[in-house]
């Protein structure tokens, strides 16, 4: 069987998950540098919008995120072709998304959510629609579908550490060096409950090295 | 915010029971079943706030719509303008009270900042980890309408004068050794709870914050010609336990609170944002004189080993009457939980130890109890890397950045020291003048009245919080 074209994915082991939500927070942090989110909680001026969700039942907790389906039903359901196969990931083009919710309904895992869109940490207005808020008409906030993109094209937040010999990699360094070598959720999980299953090889990588990769 | 209430809390509506807070708590004060909301044992809790730093269980956005988050912010003492997410583990804040006081023109508002604030405050405004901003911090405090911008580092220099003299006296007489530092309120509370029989081993010195508080309402008031009763004394600290310390009943001078209120680094950032101040583009401004002038030795109190290094710089010269050959004492720098060294001070072989993180202190306490502790002087800081990693410091979004963040803040502290013209406490001209004009000799009558304190046993069944009292003006 030829695996060469299959997508990587992140999966979790329920038996290891302690439900701390560090993965959700890290996911939000690395995806919102454009919204001014730095290293500190104090830089956050918008709601925490993760692209994976720690679910809880009576007997276990575990994070659930997009499986990067090979024949992605979300893409099939999208009326504007905003969901595409791109560099081994099922990616949503936030600009093209019309917020119709078809993808969220089509997803067998509940891995897609629709949230308000933010720019510079503030709600992004919808160009045409208005709604009545505080007894007057205001521009409606734009809504976009969000889901796991395996942290492709995300960067480490906060830029370089200012201290000498701090070991932090700088924003001034080559951008490629700033890319996350692991999805942020995998890197931060204190219990190593998440792992990246790599495309084609069937190999899985968890963060088992001392000191982490960030 | 009444001080009889505990300062550290875990919100049972938000706690997921992951127990990472329990794992990081150095005194086993957090109890509960996995998967269930945890509770804090206020008696054991040393208010270090490490649980606040590690907690990642945040309030979901939909609470905002139901006004649930607004109610929680108010309950936590946060300004309504704060936008950041709320986490299950938190410390109650005093920013609302400070904002009210800043608008009161009848008060003479004085502020002091701990050494570790200037290396971390900028992180709250998106600047790189550990960015050093003493000048912008002073400028921001001036724009917040504080009348005097003073510095805890000045108090650190005074501490070295008093504590260094005390140590030399104790070593020469062989009494009550080893001597422990007493700057860290979490350590002091832990000693009072876990080892009350060893309290006479603690230095009698108040912390640098309380020393500055005492001097602000005496020496500072005289310099400015201000009625001490009109002074509102604020301290900005990297520490969640400092609010507890300032409300201890011993911490008053001539019937007035030495420090009226403490806010954390994070709360100062909230106040700056609330006032619409563009922190990143502020000019560098100086601190006010005389209680804002400090040496490099004062500034390194913010890292583990800093008090020790500052004390040795001065102690060496007081004992040997010679200039210390090297100011950078690498043998006390580092990050291990317990570091030890032997320092030759003339004919005296001084054995020292540095404890970073309260979980490492019990072995040392057991040695002292058993009577075979080999050290003369032991620095203890409650937090893992000293005050740079305090519970009131900027909270990281990514656990993976923690090491880098602490390293960057530490490097900044040391860089700040190395760029100071005066790097020894006893050579700080403002300190020399303070002793000449006001205090007299270290450990003399006036310092004894203003700068030294006593401790109290907090053995079981004594409510630790009710022992303190708050005398705020508002």
UniProtKB/TrEMBL annotation, chain A:
PROSITE patterns from the UniProt entry: 4FE4S_FER_1 (PS00198), 4FE4S_FER_2 (PS51379)
Gene3D superfamilies: 3.30.70.20
Signal peptide feature range: none
Every 4Fe-4S ferredoxin-type domain range: 88-117
Pfam families per UniProt: Fer4_11
Recorded GO MF terms: 4 iron, 4 sulfur cluster binding; metal ion binding
InterPro entries: 4Fe4S_Fe-S-bd, 4Fe4S_Fe_S_CS, RnfB_subfamily
Entry protein name: 4Fe-4S dicluster domain-containing protein
Organism, as annotated: Paenibacillus sonchi
Automatic annotation (TrEMBL), chain B:
Top-level division of the source organism's lineage: Bacteria
Keyword check for Metal-binding: yes
SMART domains assigned: Fe_hyd_SSU (SM00902)
Keyword Metal-binding appears in the UniProt entry: yes
Pfam families: Fe_hyd_lg_C, Fe_hyd_SSU, Fer4
Gene Ontology MF term list: ferredoxin hydrogenase activity; iron ion binding; iron-sulfur cluster binding
Keywords, in A-Z order: Iron, Iron-sulfur, Metal-binding
Location of the 4Fe-4S ferredoxin-type domain: 6-35, 36-65
Protein name from the UniProt record: Iron hydrogenase small subunit
Record organism: Paenibacillus sonchi
């Amino acid at each position: 069987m030829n695996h060469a074209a299959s997508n990587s994915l992140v999966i979790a082991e329920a038996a290891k998950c302690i439900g701390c939500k560090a993965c959700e927070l890290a996911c939000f942090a690395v995806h919102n540098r454009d919204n001014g989110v730095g290293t500190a909680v104090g830089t956050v001026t918008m709601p925490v919008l993760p692209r994976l969700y720690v679910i809880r039942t009576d007997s276990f907790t575990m994070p659930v995120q997009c499986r990067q389906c090979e024949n992605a039903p979300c893409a099939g359901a999208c009326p504007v072709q905003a969901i595409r196969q791109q560099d081994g990931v099922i990616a949503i083009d936030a600009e093209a998304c019309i917020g119709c919710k078809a993808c969220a309904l089509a997803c067998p895992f509940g891995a897609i959510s629709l949230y308000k869109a933010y720019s510079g940490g503030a709600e992004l207005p919808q160009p045409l629609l208005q709604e009545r808020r505080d007894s007057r008409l205001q521009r409606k906030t734009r809504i976009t579908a969000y889901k796991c993109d395996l942290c492709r094209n995300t960067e480490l937040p906060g830029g370089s550490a200012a201290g000498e010999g701090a070991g932090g990699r700088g924003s001034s360094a080559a951008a490629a060096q700033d890319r996350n070598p692991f999805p942020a959720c995998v890197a931060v999980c204190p219990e190593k409950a998440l792992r990246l299953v790599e495309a084609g090889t069937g190999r899985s990588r968890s963060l088992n090295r001392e000191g982490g990769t960030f | 915010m009444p001080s009889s209430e505990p300062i550290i809390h875990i919100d049972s509506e938000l706690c997921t029971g992951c127990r990472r807070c329990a794992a990081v708590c150095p005194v086993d004060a957090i109890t509960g079943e996995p998967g269930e909301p945890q509770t804090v044992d206020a008696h054991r809790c040393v208010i270090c706030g490490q649980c606040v730093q590690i907690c990642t269980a945040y309030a979901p956005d939909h609470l905002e719509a139901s006004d649930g988050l607004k109610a929680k912010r108010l309950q936590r003492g946060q300004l309504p303008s704060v936008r950041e997410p709320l986490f299950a583990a938190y410390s109650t804040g005093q920013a609302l009270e400070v904002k009210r006081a800043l608008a009161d023109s009848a008060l003479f508002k004085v502020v002091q900042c701990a050494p570790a604030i200037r290396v971390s405050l900028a992180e709250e405004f998106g600047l790189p980890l550990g960015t050093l901003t003493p000048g912008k911090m002073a400028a921001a405090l001036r724009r917040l309408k504080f009348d005097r911008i003073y510095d805890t580092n000045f108090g650190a220099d005074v501490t070295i004068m008093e504590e260094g003299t005390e140590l030399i006296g104790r070593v020469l007489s062989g009494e009550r050794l080893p001597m422990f530092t007493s700057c860290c309120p979490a350590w002091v509370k832990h000693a009072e709870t876990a080892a009350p029989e060893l309290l006479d081993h603690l230095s009698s010195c108040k912390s640098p914050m309380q020393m500055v508080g005492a001097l602000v309402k005496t020496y500072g008031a005289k310099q400015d010609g201000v009625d001490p009763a009109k002074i509102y004394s604020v301290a900005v600290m990297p520490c969640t336990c400092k609010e507890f310390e300032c409300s201890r009943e011993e911490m008053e001078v001539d019937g007035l609170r030495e420090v009226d209120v403490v806010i954390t680094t994070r709360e100062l950032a909230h106040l700056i944002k609330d006032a619409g101040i563009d922190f990143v583009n502020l000019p560098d401004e100086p601190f006010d004189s005389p209680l804002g002038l400090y040496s490099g030795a004062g500034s390194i109190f913010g890292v583990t080993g800093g008090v020790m290094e500052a004390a040795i710089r001065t102690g060496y010269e007081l004992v040997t009457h010679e200039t210390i050959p090297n100011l950078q004492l690498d043998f006390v720098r580092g990050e291990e939980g317990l570091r030890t060294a032997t320092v030759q001070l003339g004919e005296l072989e001084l054995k020292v130890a540095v404890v970073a993180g309260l979980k490492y202190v019990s072995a040392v306490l057991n040695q002292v109890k058993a009577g075979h502790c080999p050290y003369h002087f032991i620095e203890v800081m409650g937090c893992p890397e000293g005050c740079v990693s305090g519970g009131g410091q900027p909270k990281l979004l990514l656990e993976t950045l923690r090491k880098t963040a602490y390293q960057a803040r530490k490097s900044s502290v040391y860089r700040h020291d190395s760029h100071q013209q005066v790097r020894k406490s006893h050579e700080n001209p403002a300190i020399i003048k303070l002793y000449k004009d006001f205090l007299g000799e270290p450990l003399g009558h006036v310092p004894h009245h203003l700068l030294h304190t006593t401790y109290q046993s907090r053995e079981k069944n004594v409510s630790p919080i009710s022992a303190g009292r708050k005398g705020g003006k508002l």
